[in-house]
Amino acid sequence: MIDHWPLMGLRLTIGDVELRLPDDEELAQLADVAERGVHAPGDRPFLNGWTDGTPAEVARRFVQAHWGHRAAWTPQRWELELAVFHEGRPVGCQGMWASDFATVREVTTGSWLGIEHHGRGIGTRMRGAVLALAFAGLGSEFAMSMSFEDNHAPLGVSRKFGYRPDGITRDALHGEVMVSRRLRLSRQDWETGNPEPVIISGLDPCRELFGLTGD
Questions:
Q1: pLDDT (tens digit per residue) in 187-196
Q2: Residue 18's domain spans which residues?
Q3: How many domains would you assign to the chain?
Q4: CA-based, 20 to 30 A from 124: which of 13, 134, 147, 178?
C-alpha cells in the first residue's frame, strides 16, 4: 500500500509517542477509544459536534470521517489525520490540514485524545510532533490553532509552544454563539522555543502529495 499511498509510511516519533496513519484494525481500536469518550459529559470542545449522539454513532462518524479525509485528499487541499500511539497503544488522533500549502505555507492543527489519557502530557507531545512536521519537514511559515475560550487544555498547550493571539471567531453550535480564540505560531517563535526533538521518517515519498513537487 505504501507504493500507492506513501503517507502510510510516514512516522513521527517524540519520546514514547508515535504518530502515523492507522491500518483498518488500528482504526477500529481508535473508534473504540472515541466510543468511550474524549471529553467529560456535558462539555462541548469541538465546533463540528462530532461527539454528539450515542457512543456507537460517535465511533461510526469517526471512522467515516477518517476514510473521507483520505478519499478527498489532493495536493491543493489536504487533511492529514494521524493516529497517536502511546507506548504502542492507540490513544487519539492529531490532525493537520491546509489549502494551497505550496503557496501559502500555513497549516492548521486539531486533535482529540481519549478521556482516560488526559493529563499525561500526551497532548503536548502530539502537537509538538506535527509542528515539527509542519516547520522542519514541510517548510511551513505559520501554524494555526483555534479553541473555545473555556477549552483550557489545548489553549495551555498552545501557550507552551509560543502561539500568539490572532483574533477570535464566532460560530453557531446548537443554537448558541460559540467564541473561539484564534492562535498563530510563526516558524521563528517555534524555533526559538527549543522544541523537543522529533524523528520524522518516510516523508520524502510524500512531498508530492503535500503539493511540494520539486522542493
A1: 999 999 988 9
A2: 6-140+194-209
A3: 1
A4: 178
